[in-house]
Amino acid sequence: VTGAKRREAGVAILGAGFMGSMHAAALRQLQVLGDQDAVVPRLVAVADSDPLAAEELAARFEIPMWTTDWRSLIDDPRVDVVTIATPNNVHVDMAVEAARCGKHVYCEKPLGTDLSDARRALDAVTDAGVTTLVAFSYLFNPVQAHVRSVLQQGDLGEVISFRGTFDQDLLVDPSAPFNWRMDRAVAGPGALADLGAHVIAIALHLVGPLAVVSSMMRTLVPSRQVSIGAAVSRAVENEDEAYLLGRFASGATCVIGASRVATGRKVGLSYEIQCTRGSVTFTHERMNEFGLYRHDGPADRGYTRILTGPSHGQYGRLYPIAGVGLGFGDQKVLESAALFDALASGVRPFADFHFATEVTAVVEAAERSAEQAIWMPVEGATAGAGVA
Ligand SMILES: NC(=O)c1ccc[n+]([C@@H]2O[C@H](COP(=O)([O-])OP(=O)(O)OC[C@H]3O[C@@H](n4cnc5c(N)ncnc54)[C@H](O)[C@@H]3O)[C@@H](O)[C@H]2O)c1
């Protein structure tokens, strides 16, 4: 991090696919949002194993350096922050190398393909003392910060239950071809780690650590053509749908579902939190509103539909009036801002590698439970989930 006043941090983007491009766009917007005391990103390099992808992203965002060899970028003195937007199996190697070179790390979810992988990353960044952020993007919808503060104020009473889903129908068509998300060695688990992890992150953040889980998983389409119309197929190596039943450390109950074969759902990330004196509902498909029910109101009680605005979380950083509506890209801007705010303030950001390791621990416990058809305790459930 260099320069006086409005300081700049050089960023290298690893992975130039969907998320690499979202990171570049969000960081570009963050450059113009920062005030005089801010640390703002400067895009200095991009790496992708596919040279066309790297070159294209570099050209589109006027990034001066691109390469197919990510290792060659990490130790470059112009790079202060590494953002990791590759498939899951390389996240941890990249994070460990970045930490070794003293670089801050902004990593896509999930953190690694299993718990030992996540812990290897956590140990490396902890030893190096670098700042980290993991991209549980839906946490950065201002709705979540507001719901958390409503729950903490206590007037809804105690949380009884959290029930959430992340449903998509991208793979319900059996002719949809194989991709890296179905390759166990590259992706790790399937729907639960890819989609369900976002809901687990929200559940941990809003309700607290999960103590024990039970789970079942299923692969609906056992093999898929390697490309559209190809004669050759590959076995799908992880689950298309996963269901988790759990108990929070507080005693509250939890139900989470994740499916990539959920016909009709696009980004069906939804939840309902039942409390002793009220409840909350949210669905990302209507991401600019949430429902709030207060049980101590007048006789004609009902859910209130609340449109988000500047009084909710970090909304006001983007727009001055309620109801104009945020999109997925806005979440990404607020997510990347969490890292750069932390670089300016020195305060540990949310959600960092500690928190992401807790999410991975829940996914791993669910997998073990599904394999063995038993309840599994969540390893190392800690207070990290409560970090604001
Ligand atoms: N936060 C979110 O909401 C969200 C949404 C989608 C994806 N993701 C995560 O983002 C990551 C990337 O997903 P995506 O949808 O952008 O995938 P993608 O397939 O669109 O892009 C991945 C890119 O990484 C490149 N790549 C693969 N191996 C590499 C290597 N060893 N070194 C350098 N580059 C390599 C590929 O060529 C490709 O360009 C995944 O971890 C995924 O879970 C997060």
Task: Write a structural description.
- The protein has 388 residues and is an alpha/beta fold.
- It has 10 helices and 17 strands.
- The strands form 3 sheets. It has a 9-stranded mixed β-sheet. A 6-stranded parallel β-sheet has the order 3-2-1-4-5-6, sandwiched between helices. A two-stranded antiparallel sheet has the order 9-10.
- Strand 5, helix 5 and strand 6 (132-135) form a beta-alpha-beta unit.
- It starts with 6 loop residues before the first strand and ends in an 11-residue tail after the last strand.
- The structure holds nicotinamide-adenine-dinucleotide.
- Nicotinamide-adenine-dinucleotide (NAD) is lined by residues 14-19, 47-50, 53, 70, 85-88, 90, 108-109, 135, 137, 194.
**Rounded to an integer, what's the Rg over CA atoms?**
21 Å
State the share of residues found in helices, binned by percent.
25-40%
Q: List the helices and strands in order.
A: EHEHEHEHEHEHEHHEEEEEEEEEHHE
- Strand residues, percent: 25-35%
Number of helices: 10
Q: Count the E strands.
A: 17
Residue runs with pLDDT of under 50 for 5 or more positions = 383-388
Instruction: Please identify the structural class as seen in this structure.
Output: alpha/beta
